[in-house]
Write a structure and sequence with these properties.
RuvA_2-like; four-way junction helicase activity; DNA damage; Helicase, Ruva Protein, domain 3; 9 helices; 200 residues; OB fold (Dihydrolipoamide Acetyltransferase, E2P); DNA repair; alpha+beta; cytoplasm
């Protein structure tokens, strides 16, 4: 298993990064919060987990070991694969996810794309005694620089589709987020605003 990756950042997307390790560019799927905390050309150290499928080897990367451990833990629930697990951590910070599971907050869990009421109930049932209690306040995400309106719209819509929302849902959420956006909002802020719209 590849437990961590260290090297200079060669590419940044909203939900994926490329880090050069020994001359090889490794594509890592990640949450928008993790990607937004990195900077092109600077060295990064990320906790990783390798998901092996018949037709693919996919690396997922996280800012902390705790995020990686939760990513692996939630996949022990029937019906939860890497895509939904990553969506959970994209929508909910680790402590907020723990709080939702321990308090059986189904409304919060069903804000994650791909998780319905039955799925949320199953997650609570199977993980309540495994995730533990929240450690403290949910961690804040690191902002990325503001970008042009068209650029952020495309990036946020692409990230939402990657999380499992339909193109129409993504476009509608982006439009609503744009209407309510403060001047100079960055991509991460716009993604969070769009996710809030989808969670209404």
């Amino acid at each position: 298993m590849i437990a961590s990756v260290r090297g200079p950042v060669r590419h940044l997307g909203l939900d994926r990064v490329v880090i050069e390790v020994g001359g090889v560019g490794m594509l890592l799927h990640t949450t928008p919060a993790t990607a937004s905390a990195l900077h092109l050309g600077q060295e990064a150290l990320l906790a990783t987990t390798l998901v092996v499928r018949e037709d693919s080897l996919t690396l997922y990367a996280f800012t902390t070991d705790d995020e990686r451990d939760i990513f692996e833990q939630v996949q022990t629930v029937s019906g939860v694969g890497p895509r939904i697990a990553l969506a959970m951590l994209s929508v909910l910070a680790p402590d907020r996810l723990r709080a939702a599971v321990t308090s059986a907050d189904l409304a919060t869990l069903t804000k994650v794309p791909g998780i319905g009421k039955k799925g949320a109930e199953r997650i609570v049932l199977e993980l309540r005694d495994k995730l533990g209690m929240p450690f403290g306040a949910a961690g804040a995400t690191t902002a990325v620089p503001p970008v042009g309106a068209t650029a952020w719209r495309d990036q946020v819509a692409e990230a939402l589709v990657g999380l499992g929302y339909s193109a129409k849902q993504a476009d509608d959420a982006v439009s609503k987020a744009a209407d309510a956006a403060p001047a100079g909002a960055d991509v991460s802020a716009m993604l969070r605003a769009a996710l809030r719209e989808l969670g209404r």
